[in-house]
Amino acid sequence: MTDTTSPAAFTELVNLAARTLGAGVVAANDELFAEKENLIVAAPAEFRPHTFGHKGQIMDGWETRRRRGAGADEPHPTDADHDWAIVRLGVAGVVRGVVVDTAHFTGNYPETGSVEGASVPGAPSPEELAAAEWTELVPRTTLRGDTAHEFPVELEQRFTHVRLNIWPDGGVARLRVYGEVVADPRDLDGLTFDLAAQESGGVATGASDRYFSSPHNLNSLGRAAVMGEGWETRRRRNKDHDWVELKLAGEGEVLAVEVDTTHFVANCPGWASVSGRDGSGEWFDLLPRTRLQPDTRHRLRVTPQRPVTEARLNVFPDGGVARLRLTGRLTEAGRAALALRWLNLVPAAEAEQALAEAGLSAAEAASVSAARPFADAASARATVDALQPQDTPDGADTTRRRAAIWRLLGV
Predict the structure, then answer these.
(1) Is 181 exposed, middle or buried (CB count within 10 Å of its CB: 0-12, 13-18, 19+)?
(2) Among 2.60.120.260, 2.40.50.180, 1.50.10.10, 3.30.160.20, what is the CATH number of 187-330?
(3) What is the pLDDT of residues 182-199, one digit of tens each?
(4) Taking CA 41 as the corner, what is the angle to CA 36 and CA 45, rounded to the nearest 5 degrees?
(5) CB contact set of 85 (below 8 Å; sequence gap of 6+)
(6) Which of 97, 109, 132, 385 can pair with 105 through a Cys bridge, CB separation 3.0 to 4.6 Å?
(7) How many whole angstroms separate alpha carbon 312 and alpha carbon 329?
(8) Would you tell me how many other CB atoms lie within 10 Å of the CB of residue 133?
(9) Same fold yes or no, 9-181 and 187-330
(10) What does the alpha-carbon distance between residue 153 and residue 92 come to, in Å, rounded to a whole number?
(11) pLDDT tens digits for 126-150?
């Protein structure tokens, strides 16, 4: 039985199924008692007793009708009969753990459940998702009522959607899908963007204090609607300061910094600085210690010194910050590393399509895809160079193939 007495380590990662990142519940076979959209509501589920609507007690979750058998002689559902809901992840990524929360469902929770994942690029319809290839993330397992079930996942694959299955029927309050964002490098080509943003793969990796709210709020999408949607520390009683460290989407050059204290009025830090770190492990200033004003977006241009892979926001002495933005651009090495990770993690069909679109033949794309995972960009290029020549002039194949892998990986 899953231990639910303490949070699993994966719950400290980004919730890929957060509506603030763009997640949505795109389909469900039934939602007669309670709407499927409740599954990804950010707040914990609530219960208000004796609150009845036209279809019964109003539940803060997703709840299906009671299943019945084929007829009077077979009144019970079969072992295969089950309900399901499909969630589009806000950002695609590697799933490290899932929480299936049956909070407040006591006499109406499912007997068992499972979770599957699929990778379908673009904006597929429910019909296209139904026909997709689904991979088991959490095998069918027993569920309990009023319990947050934590399931670690150990699959090295990128997913865009998850499907929650429940047998034979019942209700689930919340579904959380924690993991690591894996952006499509083609979406970032030639752009300046927020290198720290969750949607691009930036993630908070450590913080001195998270008493009032999570450091993951710092690099969420959009602006904070209330103070609780930022990062805030307790009041410091010594002469030190607070900080958050973030891993960036990839190695890049920071061109501008935004420190947003919106909604923080009497608890805004007095000053802030931003440091960067590269492969050497040495921290250096991106933004020197700068005076902050309450409830203000501070937007500051900076001069790139050298590429960074990590950043650290320091606030003096304590307080709250709504958002941190680090606008910049990937280096060639950063773009190549991002692309290689993406290529290694997408399903074979998706990798073959991307390689074919870059310029390889279908047969060549299938051969390169089958050779994954690649340890580094050089091994990917070597695999392309080793492909058998086609009926083209001498050297033309190698030139074409190298151009194709360069377009995809930048090597």
Answers:
(1) buried
(2) 2.60.120.260
(3) 999 999 988 999 999 999
(4) 95
(5) 25, 27, 28, 29, 31, 36, 39, 62, 163, 164, 175
(6) 109
(7) 18
(8) 12
(9) yes
(10) 15
(11) 999 999 999 999 999 999 999 999 9
The pLDDT tens digits for 13-44 are 999 999 989 999 999 999 999 999 999 999 99
Torsion angle of C-alpha atoms 178, 181, 182, 187, degrees rounded to 10: 140
Instruction: Determine the Cα–Cα distance for residues 341 and 261; give it in Å rounded to an integer.
Output: 34
* pLDDT (average), residues 372-393: 82
User: pLDDT: is 137 or 388 the higher one?
Assistant: 137
Please list the residues that pair with 171 across neighbouring strands.
Answer: 63
pLDDT at 3 over 70: no
Task: Compute the chain's Rg from CA coordinates.
Answer: 24
Q: From residue 126, how far is each of 86, 163, 197, 342 by CA, in Å?
A: 8, 11, 29, 25
Asked if 343 contacts 374 with a C-beta cutoff of 8 angstroms, the reply is yes
Across 28-59, b (16+ Cβ under 10 Å) vs e yields beebebbbbebbbeeeebebeeeeeeeeebeb
pLDDT band for position 88 (50/70/90)? very high
Alpha carbons 213 and 216: distance in angstroms, whole number:
9
Pairwise CA distance, residues 209 & 321, whole Å: 13
Q: Would you state the pLDDT for residue 2?
A: 40
Q: Which two tokens stand for residue 174?
A: 């919340």
Decide if 294 contacts 268 (C-beta within 8 A): yes
> Six-digit token pair at 343?
């290529």
- Any idea which architecture 9-181 has in CATH? Sandwich (2.60)
Helix, strand, coil percentages (3-state) for the chain, rounded to 5, are 20, 35, 45
What residues does each domain of the chain span? 9-181, 187-330, 333-409
